[in-house]
Amino acid sequence: MQTLLTSQQLQLTLNRLAHQLIENLDDLNNVVFIGLQPRGIHVSKKIVEIIKELSPKQKIQYGILDITFYRDDVRDELHIANNTDIPFSIEDKKVILIDDVLYTGRTIRAALDALQDFWPPRQN
Q1: Contact criterion met (CB below 8 Å) for 114 and 90
Q2: What are the residue ranges spanned by the domains of the chain?
Q3: What are the tens digits of pLDDT across the range 22-40?
Q4: Model's pTM, two decimal places?
């Protein structure tokens, strides 16, 4: 097995991501962070912990989202659902979705579909 990142390199990468998020977001009070079940929560928890350390006076809203039944490949094998825990509204918030792998965008599409079921878009 080939090692892509050492634990030190991984921590540095997570720190960079957290710093870039803080730099690019105007106000963390208008932002929610959502980790995607199952593996994205490991990465998202680490990033949110770093953001909390860097911005201790800000209220950081963090939740987890299960997209098991929103995936387009759900019929390929038996999937066991995980928990969704989003104890806040995402209405009028910037939503940062965090997962462990970003490749084709299928997971993010499923997450957007799941969030839309929880909070349908407002009609104008």
Answers
A1: no
A2: 28-118
A3: 999 978 999 999 999 888 9
A4: 0.85
